[in-house]
TrEMBL record:
This is Uncharacterized protein. InterPro entries: Quinoprotein_ADH-like_sf, WD40/YVTN_repeat-like_dom_sf. It comes from Adineta ricciae (Rotifer).
Length: 379
């Protein structure tokens, strides 16, 4: 069993196929050729209302929440074979977030409780035991948030007005500090901090009568170090947003605007406007990739110039960026792999859902919430 997790202490998890919370850097994966017949590696029927998938070492971590019974689960599967290693019942919850893997074969899942607020649970991936549960006793929390692993602590966002950040000891669940990082007029229902080069960055959405902002907080104690006002436009309460950072450039977005912020001098290049969907963009360090109503927009980070439109009807989710390809799912139109250079479709399968990629094994995972099916394809 330990061989399966041998690389766990040095691997970061993935969310939507990209390295989670470290800037969504592209996956180092070469998709060599397009096969005439798609190679199905394995399938497994779990349960309906699957939430998110994460690759950690050679395991696939899948979360689920039943909205009627408030039963939340974590499924731990062998990512190479589909074998079920553990099924773990989590604290009763209205919703949960992607599991993250870090620190001595441990996985961490944040949930929104039905009674006491937000929970963070640590699961031993070898034994399947819940090692500890951290509770932020905040009445009124009702949206899931993205837990983020740092170099020292696990960072748990949330709070009554969605404005707080909790630093949690990864080994015993002690809450080290609780910091208010947003004003109480903060409008984002769902937010996740981004850890980049041992620094923590946050992005607030604009609200009715308030302006959005971007800033950095002290990772050890929580106070804000600096922030800037983005003066972006409120367009309803947005979800899923978090800063995307690579090569000292941060991408922050709303439904109508996206900003490229260069850390050196905090220069703000021209604003990119568009009808963005509620999904975090991806980047390869040169271009940003946004999920929009008419497809995936490839935009140059430094200038904001539109480079290419990858036409995709009802595209959904965060694009997965590899060395030469772009992977995106859709609402009802399958999952598509585009060639980044030509813009043409290299591969398409009928399944759709939340995506993850195992770069070493060259496997694409598609997790469908409605059917409860997990499908693994060789790519």
């Amino acid at each position: 069993m330990q061989a399966l997790f041998a690389s766990a202490p040095v691997q970061w998890p993935t969310f939507g196929g990209n390295t989670a919370h470290t800037g969504f850097i592209p996956i180092d994966l070469n998709i060599e050729q397009v096969m005439d017949v798609n190679k199905l590696v394995w399938t497994r029927n779990l349960t309906t209302e699957l939430s998110y998938s994460t690759i950690f070492a050679n395991t696939l971590l899948v979360t689920s929440t039943n909205s009627f019974t408030n039963v939340s689960k974590l499924f731990v599967l062998n990512a190479l074979t589909g074998y079920m290693i553990h099924t773990i019942n989590l604290t009763a919850a209205d919703s949960n977030e992607p599991a993250i893997g870090r620190y001595e074969y441990m996985a961490y899942v944040q949930t929104i409780g039905t009674v006491r607020g937000i929970y963070l649970q640590a699961i031993n991936l070898i034994t399947g035991d819940i090692q500890w549960t951290a509770v932020a006793d905040t009445q009124g929390s009702k949206y899931p948030y993205g837990t983020t692993p740092g170099s020292k602590y696990i960072y748990m966002p949330g709070g009554v007005y969605n404005e707080e950040l909790y630093a949690v000891d990864p080994y015993n669940g002690s809450i080290i500090y609780r910091a208010q990082v947003f004003p109480r007029t903060f409008a984002c229902d769902w937010w996740t901090p981004t850890v980049y080069n041992k620094r923590i960055f946050i992005h607030s959405q604009p609200g009715q009568g308030t302006l959005g902002g971007f800033g950095e907080i002290n990772p050890d104690t929580g106070p804000e170090l600096w922030s800037i006002v983005l003066n972006n436009t409120w367009d309803g309460y947005s979800t899923y947003w978090e800063p995307v950072i690579m090569n000292d450039v941060a991408l922050v977005s709303t439904r109508q605007e996206s900003f490229s912020l260069q850390f050196h001098g905090l220069h703000v290049p021209p604003i990119v406007k568009g009808s963005f969907q509620d999904y975090t963009p991806s980047t390869d360090g040169v271009s940003a990739y946004f999920t929009c109503k008419d497809g995936i927009h490839q935009v140059l980070i430094r200038s904001g110039k539109l480079q290419r439109l990858f036409a995709c009807k009802n595209c959904a989710g965060q694009p997965i960026v590899t060395n030469h390809h772009l992977i995106i799912s859709s609402n009802g139109n399958g999952t598509i792999i585009f060639n980044k250079e030509s813009g043409q479709i290299s591969m398409q399968v009928e399944e759709t859902g939340n995506l993850a990629v195992h770069p070493q094994a060259k496997i694409l995972y598609i997790i469908n919430s409605d059917t409860g099916m997990v499908v693994a394809y060789a790519i």
